[in-house]
Amino acid sequence: MQEKGSISIHTENIFPIIKKFLYSDHEIFLRELVSNAVDATQKLKRLSSLGEFAGEVGDTKIKVSVNEADKTITISDRGIGMTGEEIKKYINQIAFSGATEFVEKYKDKGDDKQIIGHFGLGFYSAFMVSSMVEIKTLSYKEGSEAALWECDGSTEFEIRPTEKTERGSDVILHIADDSTEFLEKARIKGILSKYCKFLPVEIEFDGEVINNTTPLWTKSPNELKDEDYIKFYQDLYPFSEEPLFWIHLNVDYPFNLTGILYFPKLKNDFEFQRNKIQLYSRQVFITDEVKDVVPEFLMLLNGIIDSPDIPLNVSRSFLQADANVKKIDSYITKKVADKLAELHKQDEEGFAKKWNDIGLFVKYGMISNDKFYEKAKDFCLYKNTDGQYFTLDKYKEHIQVNQQDKSENLVALYATDVRQQDTYIQSAKRKGYDVLEFSHPIDSHFIQMLESKVEKFTLKRVDADTADKLIDKDTKTESLLSAEKEKEVQEIFESAINNKDRKVTLEPMSPEELPVNITQPEFMRRMKDMQAMGGGGGMSFMGNMPEMLSVAVNSNHPLIQKILNAPDETVKKDLAKQAYDLALLSQGMLTGADLTNFIQRSVNLSVK
Ligand SMILES: Nc1ncnc2c1ncn2[C@@H]1O[C@H](COP(=O)(O)OP(=O)(O)OP(=O)(O)O)[C@@H](O)[C@H]1O
User: Fold this and answer.
1) CA-closest residue to ligand 1 atom 23
2) Which one of 131, 180, 591, 599 is most buried, by most CB atoms within 10 A?
3) Which ligand 1 atom lies nearest to the CA of residue 94?
4) Which branch of life, at top level (predicted)?
5) Separation of alpha carbons 172 and 304, rounded Å
6) By mean pLDDT, which of 155-159, 374-378, 431-435, 535-539 is the weakest?
């Protein structure tokens, strides 16, 4: 049989178009051809196990070789091979129809970014790097004749009988002049280890098998030990710290998905963490851009997802709308939440120890994903300034007695910087209040989310008010001063502070509290925080506003009596100024000339 023919296709110059579109991804030709060789090998094994192929299966290693002198790359398999008729059907028609469809779909798009980077273009991707391609093949079918197919990248092809005694196919690529980079062995090795590292059939290159045919995720979890998971993790991400824990995914209905997701120790820099999940389809590496397949917050995890059901040969927008992808997204979210719930249930103490590393992830998930929130609300932990951990329900019980305001709302207090806010924390504690620690930038979002979801529950930063007023209980401490004296003290302080943006009030507090307390109302502070983070919509005017601080003078503090009894106005003012500066100092707000003056005044007072 010798035949020349013309591949039936309307687009005469299909190859230049393929080349243009896939410009940035030429290297995938090797992934496509090796995958075809794997498919052909697995088909043969299946036929053999079904008894439909009686011959010897033999060594099925797929061999990839580079011949620099001939400028060829050969991919040889010992799979089912093809008869001449099959070549015509599968290569000339099927493979070509895939390529045609691709071109038809994308020729008007003009922008290769619109195309998912890794279109499963199949056999014809060979022409991205070849000026001529040969297939030399012998079918497994008894009495078959070996066939040679040749095509130079035009739509013309030639098939003729050839000499080949071993079953299987050799695909020989004559590398084009503009693609000679692929004749470098190091390059081929790099591509193979990127895409083919976990293929299920052995791949040999340069005398070495380059792949692990049974990667961990394909095995059953009950035959694996912790060490196996940790070792696999370190193979995937060399030089990384050990993961905290992992989830072995395995589902076959309503879609197929296997994989392992690892919880890394999170660093504060989110961006740095991304692109650590690799997507595979039947053990072939597809991409590490999983943005459309897993929910955003899960991208902080590392690991492998392998699913033949994720459509890879379509555009991004289609991928997002794909029903399977949506299901995968919610399946993974559920699995991750279930795993965390299980860990929490099994060992609350151990879970709390890991909280530093996973807390950020859980909070991010709760903020960004409602379904995750519903599950995570029962294991999300809250740490107080004494280092104790609580779930929300337990915490509510913990503060139930002391921290209810007059409208029966629970008011939780928090500090964002335990060192800087220590004075306030201690004041709150003296009142028997508990203080939570919320020190990450994500916490301001987390707090808002909590308040919107949890009824009769609000959060207040510990310096939002004086300790007496943090939780409005409608109880009053009596002032030791008459109204007249209070007015006098207020005027002394106003003139000592001499700043119209500081609102001075007199408040009867316990004598143990500081004589002067500076607070920033919760609402104002949140507005400013939000604005500083670039949010807050139309509230840009806030930026121009001076810092509104309240100055509460403790009318029951002994210092106030001392001020009232002082011999002259200057001493009164100095004492008031001193107390005010001390309050500023405790907030870390005393700087520059004010600080210098304070030190000078302190020296003067101490020698008096
Ligand atoms: N090495 C091979 N051995 C036997 N048959 C092959 C080989 N390579 C390709 N074929 C046949 O040619 C057909 C077309 O291959 P092509 O790679 O274009 O598409 P595909 O593998 O069906 O799909 P995909 O686009 O996912 O690669 C295959 O379905 C297969 O029947």
Assistant:
1) 122
2) 131
3) 14
4) Bacteria
5) 32
6) 535-539
Quick check: 446 pLDDT over 80?
yes
**Ligand 1 pocket, residue 169 CB under 6 Å:** yes
ipTM value, please give it: 0.97
Is 77 labeled as ligand-binding?
A: yes
Q: Using alpha carbons, list the distances in angstroms from residue 297 to 290, 291, 581.
A: 12, 10, 44
538 is in an annotated binding site: no
pLDDT tens digits for 86-98? 998 888 776 666 5
**324 annotated to a ligand binding site:** no
Residue at token pair 């004559």 = 174
Architecture of domain 483-606: Up-down Bundle (1.20)
Name 66's Cβ contacts closer than 8 Å, sequence gap at least 6: 72, 73, 182, 183, 184, 185, 188
Q: What is the pLDDT of residue 110?
A: 47
Closest C-alpha to ligand 1, atom 1: 37
- Looking at domain 3-209, which of 3.40.50.11810, 3.30.565.10, 3.30.1320.10, 3.30.2350.10 is its CATH number? 3.30.565.10
- Is 13 annotated to bind a ligand? Reply is no
Does 168 contact ligand 1 (Cβ within 6 A)? no
Instruction: Determine whether the shortest distance from the Cβ of 311 to ligand 1 is under 6 A.
Output: no
pTM above 0.80, yes or no: no
Compute the chain's Rg from CA coordinates: 36
